[in-house]
Amino acid sequence: MLRASEHVPAFLGLQGECQAIIRCMELWKSAAIVGVGGFFGSTFRFLAGQIIPANPNGGFPIATFLVNVVGSFAIGIVISLAIGQTISPNWRLFLAVGVLGGFTTYSAFAVETVKMINDKAFFQAGAYFLGTGIVAILACFLGMAVSQSFLRN
Q1: Where are the alpha helices (DSSP H) in the chain?
Q2: pTM of the model
């Protein structure tokens, strides 16, 4: 990382201003990393919605369910790798916040659950709500365990 004191002579008295500029540049670099990852994640999410057949009667939203489970599994791997410092902070931003943030669809999950409730499909709504939460959390644990087993080998 750049240090303002290393690049600006002390007699100019600009160290504080340079540090603020450097922090701002680092923030924008991180935002760009997340944005590029988000582009890929959102694109993958769109493609998943096009490829996975939808229920024509509006029933159980399988595409959203699968995307959230797969995304939870993947984020378990990414976070496990980040904790073990196997990937850099920039890769964590790109993958966890960008790609997987754009890929998973909890906003769609909420809308679909509300639609099922409004359609009086209470059993489906409850199964979807509980199933997504439970299975996504289990998938995250599984992703962490899988990545840890690879790291040990």
Answers
A1: 4-7, 15-51, 62-83, 89-92, 100-103, 106-118, 122-152
A2: 0.69
